[in-house]
Design brief:
The complex is a heterodimer of chains A (about 300) and B (about 240). Chain A has one domain. Chain A is about 75% helix and about 5% strand. Chain A has eleven helices and four strands. Chain A has a two-stranded antiparallel sheet. In chain A, strands 2-3 form a two-stranded antiparallel ribbon. In chain A, a hairpin with a 2-residue loop joins strand 2 and strand 3. The radius of gyration of chain A is 19 Å and the shape is globular. The relative contact order of chain A is 0.20. By secondary structure, chain B is an alpha/beta fold. Chain B has a six-stranded mixed β-sheet with strand order 6-7-8-3-9-10, with helices on both faces. Classes of the chains: A mainly alpha (about 300), B alpha/beta (about 240). Chain B: Keywords: Amino-acid transport, ATP-binding, Nucleotide-binding, Transport.
Amino acid sequence: MSTLVLLTLTGLGVAALYLLVASGLSLVFGLADVLNFAHGLFLGVGAYATWWAADNLPGAGSDGFGFVVAVAFGVLAGTLVAVLVELVLIRPLYSRTIEQVLVTVGLSLAGVALLQATWGADARPFPRPSWTREVTGVLGANVPNAGLLLIVAAAVVLGGLLAFLHWTRYGLVIRAGVENREMVTALGIDVRKAFTLVFAIGGAAAALAGALGGVYFGTVSPGQGGSLLIFAFIVVVIGGMGSVVGSAYAAVAVGLLQQFVNYYGTSGLGDICVVGLLAVVLLLRPQGLAGKVATA
Amino acid sequence: MSVEPVLTVEDLSVRIAGLHILQGVSFTVAPTGVTVLLGRNGVGKTTTLRAIVGLTPRSGDVRGTIRMGVQSLLARPTHRLVRGGLGYVPEDRCVFAGLTVAENLRLAERRGSTPAYDKVFALFPELDRRGRQRAGSLSGGQQQMLAIGRVLLNDNRLLLVDEPTKGLAPKVVTEVAEVLERVAESVPVLLVEQNLAVVRRLAKDAVVLSAGKVAWTGNAQELLLETALTKSLLGVGSGEVHA
C-alpha cells in the first residue's frame, strides 16, 4: 500500500512539473499557432535566475522567505524573457510557421549555449529550503516534500489559470482565440495583446517549473529545460492543443505511467510507454483528449 | 443631387496562392438600405467581403482602393476597421462553439461604448433565454442570430453580411430576412446572398460578380425582373425564386 501511495504521489509530482511547462506551451500553440521550441529556455532562465538570486540578490536566500524572493525573481526573469522573445522574435513571424520553428529551435540551442558559457556545463547544486529535503508520512509512505511542493504549486497555478480563463476579459479572449483567432479580430479585438499575454503566462509557469524542478532534482543544469520540454510536448499533444485541462489530465497520465512502469518494469521502460501512449492517442484521437475547441 | 456612398471599392484585385480571384472590381454601397453582392459560386463574393474587412490571408496580395467615406481601409488591421464601425457577419456564422451565448456576446462588447443588449434581445429574445447555453449546441438558425446579434451590440457605419441564410430551414430564413430588413432601416448593409427570395425582399441595389469581375450593377429589383439576365449571370431564373 505504501509503495502504491509513494509511486502515485511521486508520479503526481512529476506530472506537476510537466503541467507547469505544458500549460503555457499549450496556450501559446492553441492561440497563436506557434510551436515554441524555445519554451525550455524560459524554464532554464527561471532555474538559473532563482539559483543566482539565492546567493546574490539582497533579501533572497535559500531558506524561508528569502527562498520565496529568489523564486519570485526567477519567475520574473522567465516572464520577461518570454515577453521579449514574443515581441522581438515571434511577432514579426506570425503565420510563417517554418521561420518560427527555425527561430525557436535556434533560440533554444543558443540559450543552452549561453547558460553553459556563463555558468558551465556541469550541474550545480540548487539552493533548497531544508524542509524540502525531508519527507512527510502519507498513508505509511515517506513522500519527499519537494514532490508535494510541486503538486501544490501546480494545483495553485492550474486553479489560478482556470479562474483567469473563465472570469476575466482577457481569459475570454484567449479561450475564443484558441477556437477561432480570425473571428476574434473580426469582433474588434487586437489579438496580438493576447499573444504577448499567453507568452508571459507560459514563461512564468515554465520559470516556476525551473525553480521548483531545481528543488526537486537538487541541481540545475543548462540542458534541464530541453529534456523536460520533450515530455511537455507529449503532454500537450495528448491533452489537446490549447486545452489547459486536457494538459492537466495528460500530465497526470504521463507522470503516473512513467513512475509505475519504471518501478514495476525496467528503469527507462516508462519513457517508452509514454511514447507508446502518444502513438495510441494520435491514432485514435488525433485532436487529443480535449481537442482544440475546449479550452478550460 | 448625388448621395455619397458609404463604401467605395475601386479596381480591387486579390491574388491568393497564385489565383487571381478578384480582377479589378469596382462598385459602391449606398448609405442606406441593402446592397446585395451576387454571383455564382466561386466568383469572389466572400473574397470581396474579406478584403474589405482586412481578412485576406497574409500570403495574399490585395491591390486597389477601398474607402469608407473618405477613410482608406486597405492596410489597416481588421480590429481597427471593426472598431471604426465596420461590422462583419461571416459565412458559416463562426460563433465560438466552446463559449456560452452570453460569453459570445460579451466578447463583442467594445471598450468605450455601451453594448446595446436591449436592442439585440428585442430582435432575438432567444439569445437572452439561452445565455448560459454553449453556442456549439445551438441550432443553425440560433447560431446565425447569435452571429448577427454579436455585431448589433455596437454602433456600425456599415454591415458586411455573408450568406446569412445558407443552410437554414425556410422558416428561419424568413426570420433572418425580417431581422436584416429591420437592421437595414438604421445601418447600410452589404449582403452576399444566394437566396433570390431574400434578395427580392431586402435588396435595393445589386452588384453581380462573374469570374472575378463586376458583370452588372444597378437596381436589384430590376435585375430580378430580367429572367434571361439572372439566368445568364446567376445560373437561376428569377422566376425560380422560392419564398
